[in-house]
Specification:
Elements (H helix, E strand, L loop, with lengths): L1 H23 L2 H14 L12 H7 L3
Length: 62
């Protein structure tokens, strides 16, 4: 029974740490950083727009 109590306390502490981290994370700041970063990217090419057919065949195995 002592083992189960220690195991329950261990997982309780782990979940408590996860909850504290989740509620203390600054989502607005991270969203602002992502928006600022996305505005600085000038030209984004899709992965399907390869310049060379041989490279496309290498990436997408048949």
């Amino acid at each position: 029974m002592k083992f189960l109590t220690i195991l329950a306390v261990f997982f309780g502490v782990i979940y408590l740490a996860l909850a504290v981290h989740f509620f203390s994370f600054d989502y607005e700041k991270k969203a602002d950083e992502i928006a600022k970063f996305s505005k600085s990217i000038k030209d984004v090419k899709l992965s399907t727009s390869f310049e060379n057919q041989a490279y496309k065949d290498f990436v997408y195995a048949k």
